[in-house]
Protein 1
Amino acid sequence: MDAVTLSMMDTARAYLKLDKSKFIRESVREKAEAVIAEHQKTKFSAEDWTAFFGALDAPAAPTPRMTKAAAKFRDLQR
C-alpha cells in the first residue's frame, strides 16, 4: 500500500476509532455491497420504459391459459 493511501486509512480509522483490521473489513464490505448493488440493478432504455408503462396503462387481455390458471388458483384457495 502506498504511503498516501496508508496515511488516509490511518486518519479515517482514527476518526472512527477502529483498529486497522476492522476498518479494512468494513471498508471492503461497503465497497463490495456497492459494486454488487450497481451490477444487480435493472437498467432500462427509453424504449423499455415506454413499453413497460404502456403495458401498465393498457394491459393485454388474459389468454385462455391464464384464465384457466386463475380459476384453478381460486379453486385451490377455497
Note: The two ends are 65 Å apart (CA to CA).
Protein 2
Amino acid sequence: MNRSIWIAGLASLLCFSQSMIADVHADNWAHWRGPTGNGVAPDANPPVEFDSRKNVKWKVKIPGRSSGSPVVWEDRVFVVTSEPASNPNRSDRLPRLNFKVLCFDRGSGKLVWDAVATTSTPHEPTHATNSFASASPCTDGEHVYAHFGSRGLYCYTMDGQLVWKRDDFGKMQTRNSFGEGSSPTIEGEMILLPWDHEGDSALYALDKRTGKTIWKTDREEPTGWATPLVVPSDDKRQVIMNGDTTARSYDLETGKELWSCGGQTQRPAASPVYADGIVYIGSGFRGAFLGAFELDGRGDIEGTRNVVWHLDRDTPDIASPLLSSGRIYFYKGKSGLLSCADAKTGKLFYSTQRLPGLQNIYASPVAAGGYVYLFDRNGSVVVIEDSPTLKVVATSSMGETVDATPAIVDNEMFIRGEEHLFCVAK
C-alpha cells in the first residue's frame, strides 16, 4: 500500500474515532438515558426474571441518599450520593453533607475509589422524596462528571483525581423547595449544564476539559428538572430542552435559539427523546402535553407542519418517555398507568393500562433484548414485551425504593435502590 495513502487513512480513522467515541463504545451506558439517549440498550440482553436475590451478581450498600442513576463505562460503575458529614443536631434546619462520587468495579462490586467533591449545608430544603444529589453523573471514558447543582460541577479522571470544578453558578431557588436534579450532557468537547430555577435561568455549554464557559444562553423559564438532549439535523446539531412555558431547540455551536413550541405544563421533569428526525417532548403535571416535532422549523412552530402530532391527556410527569422499536412508552403523570403509541403517528396501541404493583413512578422505563423494564417507587419491577400488544412476562420486587433509572450493559442491569446498588445478570 502507498505509504501516503496509509497515513491519510490512519489519520481519517483517528479523527473518526475521536468524533464518534460514544458510538464506538455503544455498549457503555455513559448517560442516564443510555447510549441512544432514549432509554434503550440496543445490543444488551439482561435477565427478565430477577429480584433482590435472584440473578443478583452482586449488591453493595450505598451510603447517604441519591436518586441519580448509575453510569457504566467498561469495567467501572459510577454513582453519586450525599451523606451526613456529622451526626445531625435536632436544632439543625438542614444537615451538613458530604457530596460524593463513588466508583465500583463492574465485575465484583468492590469499591475502587470514592471522592468527596465538597462538604456543605444546603441553602434550602428539598422535597421529602428528593435528595440533595439527584443529578446523574456522565462520562466520556476519559473523565467522569458529577453535578451537585448549587454545590457545583466536578470533573474527575477515571481513577478519581479531580481535574477541575465549577462552583460559581450561584444558588438555585427551586419552586416550592422541591429541590434540584437536572443532569448534564456530554457532546463532543462540550458538557451542557441546565440551570432552570426561580431566579435567572440559563443553559450553559462548558469546555469539558477545562470547565470554562463556551456559551451561555438565558432562558425565560422557571424551575425545571429536564436534561438536555443533543440531536442531529440537516444543517447543525441541536440541543433540545423541555420547559415550563415552551419546548426549545438551540444551536449546539452557538447557543442561539432555533425554534420553540408552547403547550407544555408546569414543573417539567421528563427529558426529550429522539429518532429518525423527530424529537418528542412532554410533561404531565397540572396539564398534559406530548408532542412530536420535526427539526427544520425556525421561530415559533406552534400550529405549523413541524408539529407532527401531539397528545393532550395522560402524558408523563417525572419519568421520561421511552422510545424503542418505533414506539413511545410513557406513564400518566407519576402513576403506573402505562400507554404506548406509534412514534410516527401518535396513534395509541394501548392507553393508561394498570400493571401489577405499579402505582407511583419516578424511574424512567428502559428497554433491551425485546423487553421493557418498569420500576415503581415501592421497589416493584414489571417486565413487558417490547411490542404494540401489552404482555407482562415477569413481576418481582427489589425490596427497597427505586427512584433512579437503571443502566443496562451487555447481559447486566445496574439498579440504584434507596440503600443498595444491584448488579443483576444472567
Note: Confidence is low (pLDDT under 50) at residues 1-26.
Protein 3
Amino acid sequence: MTAVADAPPALVRSRHFSRPLAFAAIAAIFLTFTSASAAPSPLYVVYQHLWGFSATTLTVVFAIYVVGLVGALLTLGALSDHLGRRPVLAAAIGLEVVALVLFLTAGDVAVLSVARFLQGIATGAAMTTLGAALVDLNPPHAPGRAGLVNGIIPSAGLAFGALGAGALVQYAPAPTHFVWALLLGAMVIAGLVVLRLPETSARRPGAAASLAPKLGIPARLRADVFALVPIIVASWAIGGLYLSLGPSVAAGVFGLGSHLIGGLVVTLLCGTGALTSYALRGLPTPRVLAIAASLLTVGAVISVAGVEADQVVIAAVGTVISGVGFGASALASFGTLALLADPHERGELLAVALVIAYIAFSVPAVIAGFAATSAGLQVTAVAYGVVVAVLGALALVAQRLRSRRAATA
C-alpha cells in the first residue's frame, strides 16, 4: 500500500486547506488572473511608441486575447465539472506562466499577440473553474458570498492590474519587463497553492464530449439568463473601451501622457465598480439591476460631454458614475447566476455569461479601434459613449418589462 493509503485520515486531510482558507485562496488566485489580464492596458501605449503600430493594431491585439478567452469558455467552460476543479486550474496556471514568459521576452507585435492569445485561453479556463469552485466552497451561513466575490473580483482585478501596471511602467525600471516578472512570480505561487486545495467537484464521465463548443443554458433558466443579457452587454461594452483605448484617449484627447494616469483611467471605472458591488450587496437584485442600467446611461452621457468639451474633470465624473453602473451590473448578473445553477451546471452557466460579457467587451472595442484610426480618438470616444448610453437605456426598459411580467405572474 502507498504511504498516503496507510496514513491516518486526519493526516491526509491536513495536507489540504480548510474550506474557509481554500475559499480565500481561490479568491486570491482569481484576483491574480484578472489583474494579469489588465496589465497590458497601460503598456499598449508604450508598445505602440516602441513598435510604431496604429490604434487598429492595438485593438486587434486586445481582441486576440478575447478570442482565446471566448474559445476557452466555449470549449473548456464545463471541463472542471467532469475532471474536477484542481486539474483544470493547474493547467490554466501552467499556460498563464507560458504567456507571461512570452510577455517578458516580447520584441514585436507577433510575440505580443501570441502571448495575449495564450493568456486569453488560460484566463477563460481559470475564470469558470475559479467561479464554480467559489460556489462549491461557499459558507453555509453566507449563501450569497460566492456570488458577491464572483461579481467583485473581475472588476477589482482589472482595476488593480491596470493601476499597478501603470505605476510600474511610470516609475519602475524596465517598464516592459518588470511587471511581467512580478506577475510570473505570483502565478508560480498560485501553482503551489493549488497543490493544497481540496477537490470540490467529483469526477464524472463526459469530459471529452464537454469540449464540443456549445452554449448550454438549461431550459428552466433561459428566461432569467436572457433577461440579464442587455445589462451585461451595456456594462462590458464600456469596459472594453476603457481597457483597450482608455489610456490612448487620456493621452491623445486630454494630453495626459503619464502611464500612471493611463492605468488610473481603467481604475476609475473598474475600481469604482468593485466598491459598488460590495456596497450594494444587501439590496434586492431587481433594484441593483435598475441602478446599473440607469447609471450606465447617465455616466456615458456625462463622459461624452466631457470628451466633447475637452474637460477632463467632467469625463472623469462620468467614468466614476459609469463605474457604479458597471459594478452594480456585475453584482446583480453574476450573483443571480451563481444562485440559479445546480452544482453540475455552474461551470457551463458561468461560461455562457462570460462569453456574452467578453463578446460585448471585445467586438465594439475592435470596431472603435478601426474608427479611431480613420476618424480620430475623440470622435470615436463620443460615438462609443452614445451607443453605451442607448444600451443602458434598453437594459433599463428590459428590466422594467421583466418586473412587470413577474408581478403579473
Note: Residues 247 and 262 are 4 Å apart (CA to CA).
Protein 4
Amino acid sequence: MSNHLSDRIKNMSTSATLAMAAKARELRNEGKDIIGLSLGEPDFNIPDFIKESAKQAIDDNYSSYTPVDGYADLKTAISNKFKRDNNLDYGLNQIVVSTGAKQSLFNVAMVVLNPGDEVILPAPYWVSYSDIVKLAEGVPVEVLTQIDTDFKMTPEQLEAAITPKTKMLWFSSPCNPSGSVYSKEELEGLAEVLKKHPDIYVVSDEIYEHINFAGGHVSIAGIDGMYDRTITVNGVSKAFAMTGWRIGYIGAPEWIAKGCTKLQGQVTSGANAIAQRAVITALEAPVSKIKFMIDKFHERRDLVLGLLGEIEGFNLNVPEGAFYVFPDISAFFGKTLNGVTINNASDFSLYLLEHANVATVTGEAFGNPNCIRISYAASEKDLKEAISRIKAVL
C-alpha cells in the first residue's frame, strides 16, 4: 500500500543521523559492540537544578494546555537571555516557543516560503534543512564550502548564489556538522552582500552557541542592518543536555512570529508544560553553571583531533564549536579495504560501521560528499576505543 502514500512523503529523505542511530541500535540488539559517534546528543545528564524545577512544576500542577507560543514568563526569560548573551532586543510578541528547534525551523519555512522560492544553504549544512525547505515547496541551493576556509561560506560565494528567486539564507554557527564558527568580521562580510538584496531573509541557527571555543559567539541579527530580516533560532537541547525535552524557540520580526504562532496553533499547539517550566530555570541560570560540559567538549575535541591526526588519509581542520569533527576522507575513494571498495563517503561510513563497529554519518547527508561527521559527545574511553578500531581497519 506504500504506493498510496503522498508524493510529498515519498520524495522526502530519511534523516541520515537518525537512520545511522537506528542501524547501530539494530546491530547492538544482535550482540555487536557498537560505539555510536553518529548522534548529536550530549552524553551528560541534565543538571540537577533543572531537574528540580521540573519536579516542582509537576507538584505545582502545570498540566493544562500551554499558550500556543509559550508561557509569558518563559518568553520573558528568553527575551532576557537574548539581551544578556546576544545583545538582541526581542519583545515577547517576537518570540515563539516550539517543540524543539526543528519545529521552529519548519514553522519559519512554512510561513515565509512560497513555491519556487530559493533558499541558500552553505554546505555542509544540518541534515534536515534541505528537506524542510522542500516540504515548504522551496528550492534548496547548496553552496559547497571547503575545508581550507573551515567550511565557511565567503561573501563572494553568497553573491554568486543569489538569483531573483532567492528568498532566504539558512546557516548555523557554531555549525552542525563542521563545528565552524563565523566571526563578527565574517558575518559583516555576508551582511554587506545581503544589504544589496533587501528582500532576502536569514535563518540563523544558534543552537550550539554556548559550545564555543573561539572566544565568543556573534549573532548575525546584531550586525548593522540585519535585525529586521533575521530569524534567530535557538533551544536548550545541546548546551543544557535537554535533547528529549524538546524545547526550541525563535526571535524574529513580529509578522513572522505571528505567522509561526498561527501555524503552530493548527499543528501541535503549545509545547510541553513541564519542559517549559524547567527551561525558565535553565535560561535564568548563569552560563557558568554549564561550563563544565563545555570544558569537557573542548578537551574531547583536542583528544579526537590528535588521535585522528595519526591516521593517514584523514584531512582535518580545527572546529571551533559544537561537538563534531568533519574530516575529509576522499583520499580513501577508489581504494579497496578488506574486500570492500570505497567509492564515496557513504561507503566509508558504512565500512566503519560493519568492520570497526563504529557508527559515524556520511557527509553526503550534509551536502558534502567528501567528508564524514564524527560526534565527540561520548566518553573519552569510547572515543579512544572507537578511533583505535578505525585505525586498525584502515
Note: The two ends are 43 Å apart (CA to CA).
